Structures are given as structure tokens and as C-alpha cells.
Amino acid sequence: MPVRRDLPSVDAVLRSAVGGQLVTRHGHQATVAAIRACLAEARAGEEHGLSAEAAADRVGRALDASNAPRLKTVFNLTGTVLHTNLGRALLARSAAEAAAAAMIHPVALEFDVERGGRGKRDDLVRDLLCELTGAEDATLVNNNAAAVLLVLNTLAAGKGAIVSRGELIEIGGAFRLPQIMQSAGARLVEVGTTNRTHRRDYEDAIDAETGLLLKVHTSNYRIEGFTAAVPMRDLAALAHPRDIPLVEDLGSGTLADLGRFGLPTEPTVAESVAAGADLVTFSGDKLLGGPQAGFIVGREALIERINRNPMKRALRIDKIRLAAIEETLRLYRDPDRLATTLPTFRLLARGKPEIEAAARRLAPKLAELLGTEVHVAVSDCASQVGSGAVPGETLPSAGLALRPRAPGGGAVEALAARLRALPMPVIGRISGGAVLLDLRCLEDEDGFLANFQGGGA
Q1: Strands 426-427 and 434-438, how do they pair?
Q2: Residue 152 contacts residue 296 (beta carbons within 8 Å)
Q3: Could you give the CA distance from residue 135 to residue 270 in angstroms, rounded to a whole number?
């Protein structure tokens, strides 16, 4: 049975060469706590003969692991450009630089520099939003779910919110529109059926307790076949004479014509405003290509009511994202260059020949790095936009199919795990008995290969 003297003291570990370096790197308190934990573990495991130097090495590895960032940078090779679990849109460099400047410098967040008095943070981007959407006024909160919540609470708390049954969507994490309505204090009034809703369905549901009509763009799924929906202009003709607010939740939302990037057309925010929507809500970190945010644009009188809601302060956006949003919106003033200035559209616009050429360059190099245990082949594949945008539509792409040569169940899953364990995790998808790496979102080929050289995958 080992005794205490078989293990070094805390002081001995601290006085070792490595121990001194650990104090410099991690601080005295954290290092001492880690040494004590290490020695306690060794004692519990009846380990003896552990030297001070060996203990310090063990403590160093534990401290390095505990201090490694939990929010890891990864290679997104899933084929989903706006991957919710991988952070959705990448910021333009100018937006990232603006956000960084806002982090390290004082900024005029709620200060009017010209008048020398208090200002409003929403005014920083209000004019840009109005310019790009044709709306009278605009405001913003921390995401689109919050935007919908705020609109419903302001205009329909204790009242009916009329929506087509086919538009009662569920978004990520089993978060459903009816639950948002309930949280907002609005009463859900379903009209029509799952696949067909007509103007008369809305008309029959309107009464003295109606707070608003809500149209939801089903951006994350599509119903095809025997369907019918009421166009925004027809709903406007129904709502406006009755002075009932007409709200459209565009979800992903876009300020640009997606056709120029080879994608199916999606309604733009400007089109919705022009068609008669009194308010339009949409996201910032999806098709817009910016940071997480929820935008509300539309009639000035309704925006004023929304801004007076006490919930607005609880949902407001911070200076860092405001700085990035402003720079992102400025890029839309030059729509012809979006495919070069905005990462989301740059990645969506990449043609298959360009991606396939990258796959052919990388295949032999990666095969050499992975060794004979893994077969690497160029493979056709299909990318998708992601985050519920343009559902059911794919983009022709190319990638690398990695197949373990050793037979046996679990080999592909084990290979995928090895890729995720690299210094910069490589995230692909398992398909057809292989780990498929769609290269649409890979722009740093040298960094990708260097990652394998240092990670031992």
C-alpha cells in the first residue's frame, strides 16, 4: 500500500522547472489547485513513485486542456453553407473589423455626436434599413424570434393573431410559432387547412378582437401539390380598410435577388413592403450574411409603438453586433459586388468546376497525409443553403470521400471522430459508407492540409 511520502509535495511540484512555467502561464492559484487535484487522483489510484517533474507535466496537460477555448474554430465541410450548429453566416472582413473596433474603443452607441446629447442606438442603422427595404421606419432586436415576439406582444397582446394553419412553423430546437404567440400574450387564431388557405378564411375570422394578420414565409419547408395561399397584396386589401396591422415574418429574409447566385427566387424584404405588409420581420445571420439579429421594418407609427414596449430594452442589441450590422448593410448598396464582398454569397456563388478543381488538388495530398488506412477519392455532392433558407434546393458541388480500408462496423464513425479531434476540427458528413467532405466552404487549402500534418489524423 503506497504512503504519502511516495508522492511529491505541492511545493516540490511548484519548484520544479515545469512548475515555475505553469505559474507564469496559468497563475499561482490555478496551478496549485491543479497540482492538488493531480496528487489526489494519484493517491486515490494508489499510484506511487511519481516524481515532481512528471506530476508537473501531468498538471500542465490538464491546465492546457481546461483553458482551451470551448468555442472552437472548425472547418465546415458539411455542405451546408449557413449551418446553424456551426454559427451560420461568416462576417465580411469589414464587418469583423468594425466589431473589433467597437470592442476595444469607446463608441457613440447612444450619443448624438452632432448635438452633443443622448442618442438612440437603433438610429445607427435605421436609415440604411429604410433605404434598402423601402420601409418608413425600422428597429432591431437580438434575433428574429425576438422580433416576432415583440411585434405580437405590442400589437396583439390579449387579442387574436390570425395565421394560416399551413404557416404554423417550428424552427430549431422544437421552438414553435404557437409557443411564441402564447409567450407574447396573443391568442392564436388558425385559419384554412395545412395545404390550402383562402382569402375568405381570413375574412371570416376577423372580429372586434383581432389584433393583427400574420403571414409566415415557410422558409424551412415546402408544401407542394394541391395548395393555395393568399398573396400579400390580397391580405393588404383585406387588412388595411379595417385598420388591422398586416405582419409578415420572412424568417431568413433577404435583401438581394438570389437569382443572381443561381438560387431559386425568394421574396425580398423590399418586395414584401411594396406588396403592402405593414411590418416585416427577418433575421440578420442567415441570408443577410451578418451577425445574429432580428429586424423589424415597416410603418412608422407601428415601429414607434414597438419601441415604446418595455420588452424592447430586454431584447435590444449590443454595440458589437450593431457595428457589424452597419458594415454588412453598407455592402448591399453595391449588390453587383456581393459575391465578392459578402462571404455568404461568395460561398453560394462558387461553381462546381472551381470546387472540383480544389478537390483534385487536395485528394493526393490528403491521401498521403492519411496513409494507407484511408482511401481518398474525388466525389460529386450537393450543397445546401441551410438555416431553413430555400428548402429542398441544392447546389452542385464536389468534395472528398474518405473511406476506411479496414472492414468492420464503426470504422466510418471512428474516422469522423478522428477528424473532429484535429487541432482545428474538420466537420463533414457520413454518406454512402464514407466521410464526405464537401469543399464548397473551404477557402484555406494550405491551412486545411497543415491541420492534418500537425494533428496526426
Answers
A1: unpaired
A2: no
A3: 8
**Model confidence, pTM:** 0.89
Instruction: Assign 3-state DSSP to the chain and report helix, strand, coil percentages, each to 5.
Output: 45, 20, 35
Q: Find all residues with CB under 8 Å of 258, minimum gap 6, and list them.
A: 264, 265, 266, 287, 390
Query: What element of type H or E holds 96?
Result: helix 93-104
Please report, rounded to a whole number, the percentage of residues in the chain having pLDDT higher than 90.
Answer: 79
Three-state secondary-structure class, residue 282: strand
| Strand (E) or helix (H) holding 257 | none
The pLDDT score that the predictor gives to residue 6 is 82
Q: Under a CB-based contact definition with an 8 Å cutoff, are residues 230 and 198 in contact? A: yes
Q: Residues 386-405: pLDDT tens digits?
A: 877 777 788 999 999 999 98
- Examine the pLDDT at 2 and tell me if it is beyond 50: no
pLDDT in tens, 52-79: 999 999 999 999 999 988 999 999 999 9
Q: Which of 237, 152, 159, 250 is nearest to 202 (CA)?
A: 237
The answer to whether residues 156 and 305 touch, using CB atoms and an 8 Å cutoff, is no
Are the C-beta atoms of residues 349 and 262 closer than 8 Å to each other? yes
**Cell numbers at residue 45, please?**
489510484
CB 274, CB 134: distance < 8 Å: yes
Residue pLDDT, tens place only, 28-42: 999 999 999 999 999
Q: In whole angstroms, what is the distance from residue 439 CA to residue 441 CA?
A: 5
CA angle 147, 275, 82 (to 5 degrees): 45
Alpha-carbon distance 451 to 457, whole Å? Answer: 9
pLDDT of 280-335, one tens digit each?
999 999 999 999 999 999 999 999 999 999 999 999 999 999 999 999 999 999 99
Taken in order 230, 236, 240, 245, the sign of the CA dihedral is positive
Assess contact for 197 and 230: CB atoms under 8 A: yes
β-bridge mates for residue 87, sequence order: none
Q: Is 265 exposed, middle or buried (0-12, 13-18, 19+ CB in 10 A)?
A: exposed
> Band of the pLDDT at 224, cuts 50, 70, 90?
low
Q: How many whole angstroms separate alpha carbon 434 and alpha carbon 438?
A: 12
Q: Is 419 exposed, middle or buried (0-12, 13-18, 19+ CB in 10 A)?
A: buried
